[in-house]
Design a protein that fits this description.
mainly beta; 6-stranded mixed sheet; 2 helices; 38 strands; 40% strand
Length: 491
């Protein structure tokens, strides 16, 4: 067959990875056998053709990563062994066409955005993330169906996978929206998948080390995924061009002493000394002074900024002009503005004070009322992951469990590596193996389940109908979805 790139869907994208000494190659994380005197690239091509036949595909896009030269290239391989090199076009006219397509579909508006890292300093630069036409989603056969989970799943969940995919060692999973679950690919990109089938619907370059740090928000009117990673703020458009294998993020450099926050409705940069940097409607970042002695609660999609001091909640416009001041009563023992703030959902924030006494409480951001407060054993650090079940109004952070719906309460948790939350059950890795902690229990002691081993991992995500487990076997790390056997019940 003659390959027509326009007729080959953007997904799936197979990944071949060549070792540094060029004596081994993997396909989507699985080792490929190399015959005597066979070139590793030919072995990889043979493995791709075999996988194509298994998935009943005529041709597929392939990304090759060569560790020996620290290079990569894209190609299309068909079932009859034909290879179309997407990196080097064979005709000047074809190159001209594709350059035109890349210009039209590029992710950053020409003249208004910058590829790579933007070190802004005091310069006002428009940072725009362009809206993109949605990717065409081809027919998909779930991969890894029926694979045996290499760890005992929690009760009422299948021991075999609904689907499974190679993932990066140490990775987690992030249900960033009801219809998209994020997984990390072995080569360092992030893929959004349909939860029920694992079908890829979006792919982004430069995945953060911790997928849980990615949040969905708005930047200058565009829906984005955002993550703060090392010394930069990364922004990916939520939609993806149909002819692009993956989306490159807009990266905004952070100078020493600056931090970025992405759990707000619009990401922003904290400069210190009561100054933050936010985008305006045109995407231009500018500095805004917030009321001294306050900390940011949220930056809304329309640019409105909300901050909180020891006694007052301020509403500011995008220039820093105070639009409204609302008094609130801080918990007893809290004498300054909150030291840390976490957004639980659109209308609730978790606040922590750590000055003369340790105090935490939940604020209703619509009314300015403190729903409840308490004195936890310890105050969580800013780097500990926040786990939230918004439907159940429960959360866990460090050694603190939070119920902020009916029967609101702070619950001290035993030392454990928290991994997921669903309803009142927190899932964790302990020295004795995976376990659950019940927020309704006065002691919240770890409870293990049947058939577990001490080295089994706890689920990294739990939903009404499934759990997601990430496990490593023989140096290969895989994410498995295990369906709930009785999805009508909620644990």
């Amino acid at each position: 067959m003659s390959i027509d790139p326009a007729k080959v869907p953007a997904f799936p994208v197979y990944t071949l990875q060549i070792s540094e000494d060029r004596d081994a190659i993997t396909l989507d994380g699985a080792q490929v056998p190399v015959l005597d005197e066979e070139d590793v690239i030919e072995a990889g091509k043979r493995a791709v053709i075999t996988k194509l036949a298994t998935h009943h595909l005529g041709a597929v896009r392939v990304r090759a990563l060569d560790a020996s030269t620290d290079s990569s290239w894209d190609m299309i391989i068909s079932t009859d062994g034909e290879v179309f090199d997407l990196s080097t076009q064979h005709a000047a006219e074809q190159a001209k066409i594709e350059r035109s397509q890349r210009t039209k579909k590029r992710l950053f508006i020409a003249g208004a955005s910058i590829m790579g890292v933007l070190v802004l300093g005091g310069v006002t630069t428009a940072v725009m993330v362009a809206n993109q036409p949605a990717a065409t989603i081809p027919a998909y056969t779930p991969q890894g169906v029926g694979a045996t989970l290499p760890a005992a799943p929690p009760p009422q969940h299948s021991a075999t996978a609904a689907w499974s995919h190679p993932t990066r060692a140490g990775a987690t999973v992030n249900l960033i929206s009801p219809d998209r679950v994020l997984t990390a690919d072995p080569e360092g990109t992030v893929t959004a998948r349909t939860p029920a089938t694992g079908q890829p619907v979006w792919r982004g370059d430069k995945a953060p080390e911790n997928l849980a740090s990615m949040h969905q928000g708005t930047w200058a009117g565009t829906e984005v995924y955002a993550a703060a990673e090392r010394n930069e703020l990364r922004l990916w458009p939520v939609t993806m061009p149909y002819d692009t294998p993956s989306v490159a993020p807009t990266s905004i450099g952070l100078e020493p002493g600056q931090t970025a926050r992405t759990d707000t409705h619009t990401p922003y940069i904290d400069l210190g000394d009561w100054y933050i940097r936010v985008p305006d409607a045109a995407g231009t970042l500018h500095e805004v002074m917030i009321p001294p002695g306050s900390t940011v609660l949220d930056v809304a999609a329309d640019g409105t900024i909300t901050t909180i001091s020891a006694t007052t909640i301020y509403t500011l416009d995008n220039t820093g002009t105070i639009l409204n001041e609302q008094h609130f009563s801080a918990p007893e023992g809290a004498t300054k503005y909150p030291a840390r703030v976490w957004l639980l959902d659109d209308t609730h924030a978790l606040l922590a004070w750590d000055d003369t006494e340790r105090v935490m409480g939940v604020l209703d951001t619509t009314t300015g009322a403190m729903l409840f407060s308490g004195a936890p054993r310890t105050i969580p650090t800013a780097t500990e992951p926040l786990l939230v079940d918004r439907d159940a109004k429960t959360a866990a952070l460090g050694a603190v469990g939070i119920r902020y719906g009916a029967n609101s309460e702070l619950v001290d948790l035993p030392s454990a590596d928290l991994s997921a939350i669903h309803g009142n059950l927190i899932y964790a890795n302990t020295n004795n193996g995976p376990a659950t902690l019940n927020l309704e229990s006065p002691e919240a002691e770890p409870q293990s389940w049947a058939n577990y081993r001490a080295e089994d991992p706890a689920p990294v995500l739990v939903t009404d109908d499934a759990v997601y487990v990430v496990a490593t076997q023989l140096e290969n790390t895989t994410v498995y979805r295990s369906n709930k056997t009785n999805p009508s019940t909620r644990q």
